[in-house]
Write a structure and sequence with these properties.
The chain is α/β, with parallel strands linked by helices. Helix content is 48%, strand content 23%. It has one domain: Glutaredoxin (3-Layer(aba) Sandwich), CATH 3.40.30.10.
Amino acid sequence: MATTDLTQESFEKTIQDNDIVLVDWWADWCGPCKMFAPVYEEVSQEHDDIVFGKIDTEDQQQLAAAAGISSIPTLMAFRENVLVFSQPGAINQQQLGQLIEQVRGLDMEDVHKQVEEARAQSEQSAN
């Protein structure tokens, strides 16, 4: 599957409607982004079951701000509508492959349980 451009309008639906979504936050002026782009594109061809999204931070400034993007490139991984990885900096093909295997190997029942526990704790401390 090739990479998909995501926007404010398509971002949330893409995350909700797919099991695994990787998101590359980038900008045209960013040298490391340009170095990472062909790696990301090539790996996307090997994984039909994963959505490889790209978000141009210049074009989607509100979305980038809402996601707290302060450095690019930033790579995020979502699984079952949960952010499970977020890291700035370009990575190589081997590292991206390892990340994909780690995301696939997550015990999502446990991850959802941890998310619920964290949400409950934050609600308690807010009261």
